[in-house]
Design a protein that fits this description.
- InterPro entries: EmrB-like, MFS, MFS_dom, MFS_trans_sf.
- By secondary structure, the protein is mostly helical.
- It has three domains: 12-193, Up-down Bundle (Growth Hormone, Chain: A); 206-261, no CATH class; 263-501, MFS general substrate transporter like domains (Growth Hormone, Chain: A).
- The protein is built from 23 helices and two strands.
- The chain has helices at residues 14-38, 41-48, 52-55, 57-80, 82-100, 106-135, 140-168, 173-176, 178-192, 206-224, 226-229, 235-254, 271-291, 293-300, 306-312, 314-331, 336-355, 363-378, 381-390, 397-428, 443-452, 454-459, 462-494; strands at residues 432-434, 440-442.
- A hairpin with a 5-residue loop joins strand 1 (432-434) and strand 2.
- The model is unreliable at 1-8 and 504-521 (pLDDT under 50).
């Protein structure tokens, strides 16, 4: 499709907005499901009698599945057609949601989350392709503003919605709520999305996919097994880490050979892309990993309900809502090398408050810290990605977008696994004591359990609960220190981001449509 065949007006007409409605609905489902589950992790621990590191796999498995299908979506859209594939992705996500609600074990839930992630991972990139074709590349800025709605609502609405559903119904409803939305979305997509004919496409790198995805999954499984074993010497830890690491290294060496590799690592010859990718990768590990722990602190140490924990997380989303539109405007006028380090500085200031937490830290301190972090986050994520892709040639944008998005998903998976391992190891250091039912436990574990079980609280010595909660709070603080150090480390590559205006190369000089960048989840 050429630019000449698209309406020349910069305004989004009714036909484009109708298509945008389908895409936004799918994006809301996909993004909300990441944040909704964050407040449910402690509930999964008690429901399935599993460690924090184990239940964190409900997040890690989902993001790994997202990373697996992002590179597949562009190739599959050309081969099978965007409308058909979008509806398949929506159906897969909806079916996966329904199955998650039927899970009887944590293993089943993790497996169903993978299925859900395989559908959810295709919704955003396919949605962007559909919208770009409907509106034309010259209206990408307005399209990104429309898709920014679910990205802003997710961090605020997800924890609140998840908390309300768990408190008023059960954890099953955080998945069941997707069923009616999915059905409406499928009907809407059938009626609103334009038909498109599949076209011949470039070959897909199945060999690369068979190395990268299992390699990452095995490596992260080994890391997540560390709290259970307590040592790297256990085969359950080192064997999957070794095999997974070898597969990832083999993938990196192999990826320079195919004409169309799964990840085009040759793009890292572009200095701007490399610096932006390194900055974002380190930042995602720290921020997304620690982000899962914020609601857990409110639930486990402070004894709040899941709804209250969700509401206490809202200042972060509000902060991001304020600065994201401002950062988007500044990104076109001011080099991000002058704005992103400042935004990261805000995150560092906000994050420091959580390194000081104890069992009685005032909520105004924690809320203020989350708000300042949100301000920084809104000025960090999208500008970094936009800068990375702006310097690429038109024919490189799709591959660059895929590369940056997969790095983002991998960073989120690594962050979730690493932070949950550190927290679990810290909590395991609490003094062992016999539980009321005769089994062996720790003071911290008993104190945390008593926060949600009043009958258990009445049977325990108040001094034991106080010691256990103090230890648990210190465990969270120690974990936050690790994340804080990583955020500070992020400032180093951020200082090398472009400090001068860069010429945009997103427009194809031949007037041909290019696949637009995929927004960060």
């Amino acid at each position: 499709m050429t630019q000449q065949s698209v309406a020349t007006s910069d305004k989004l007409d009714a036909a484009v907005l109708k298509v945008a409605g389908v895409v936004v609905l799918g994006a809301i489902m996909s993004i909300l499901d990441v944040t909704v589950v964050s407040v449910a992790l402690p509930k999964f621990q008690s429901e399935f009698d599993a460690s924090y590191a184990r239940v964190a796999w409900t997040m890690t498995a989902y993001t790994l599945a997202l990373a697996t299908v992002i590179p597949l979506s562009g190739w599959a859209a050309d081969r099978f057609g965007t409308k058909r594939l979008y509806m398949v992705a929506l159906a897969l996500f909806t079916i996966g949601s329904g199955l998650c609600a039927t899970a009887d074990t944590i293993g089943e839930l993790i497996g169903y989350r993978v299925l859900q992630g395989l559908g959810g991972g295709m919704l955003m990139p396919l949605g962007m392709t559909i919208m770009t074709r409907a509106a034309g590349p010259h209206r990408i800025g307005r399209l990104m503003a429309v898709l920014g709605i679910p990205m802003l609502l997710g961090p605020i609405g997800g924890p609140i919605l998840g908390g309300w559903l768990i408190d008023t119904a059960s954890w099953h409803w955080i998945f069941l709520i997707n069923l009616p939305i999915g059905v409406v979305g499928l009907i809407y997509a059938q009626l609103a999305l334009p038909k498109d004919a599949p076209e011949p496409s470039e070959s897909f790198d199945f060999v690369g996919m068979l190395m990268l995805s299992p390699g990452l999954a095995l490596f992260l499984y080994g890391v997540s097994s560390l709290p259970e074993t307590g040592t790297f010497a256990d085969a359950k830890v080192w064997a999957p880490m070794l095999v997974g690491g070898a597969l990832v290294v083999a993938f990196v060496l192999y990826s320079f050979k195919p004409r169309h590799p799964l990840l085009d690592l040759r793009l890292f010859r572009n200095r701007s892309l490399t610096i932006a990718s390194v900055t974002m990768f380190v930042f995602i590990i720290a921020f997304m990993g620690a982000g899962l722990l914020f609601p857990s602190y409110f639930l486990q140490v402070r004894g709040e309900s899941t709804l209250a924990a969700g509401l206490l997380m809202a200042p972060q989303g509000i902060g991001a809502m304020i600065t994201m539109p401002i950062a988007g405007t500044l990104a076109d006028r001011v080099p991000i090398g002058r704005t992103v380090p400042f935004a990261l500085g805000l995150i560092v200031v906000g994050f420091f408050g959580f390194t000081q937490v104890d069992a009685q830290t005032p909520y105004w301190v924690l809320g203020g810290s989350l708000f300042v972090m949100g301000l920084g986050m809104g000025g960090t994520m999208m500008p970094i990605m936009t800068s990375a892709l702006r310097t690429l040639q038109a024919q490189e944008v799709a591959r660059g977008s895929t590369l940056v998005n997969i790095l983002q998903q991998i960073g989120g998976s690594v962050g979730a696994a690493v932070m949950s391992v550190i927290l679990t190891n810290e909590l395991n250091g609490s003094r062992p004591i016999p539980a009321p039912d005769g089994t062996q436990t720790t003071e911290a574990a008993l104190a945390i359990a008593s926060q949600q079980l009043p009958e258990l609280q009445q049977r325990l010595d108040p001094s034991l609960i106080e010691r256990g909660l103090d230890f648990a709070a210190q465990s969270f603080a120690n974990t936050f220190w690790v994340a804080f150090a990583l955020v500070v480390l992020t400032i180093i590559p951020a200082l090398f981001l472009p400090r001068r205006r860069q010429p945009a190369q997103l427009d194809d000089p031949q007037g041909e449509q290019v696949r637009t960048p995929v927004p960060i989840h």
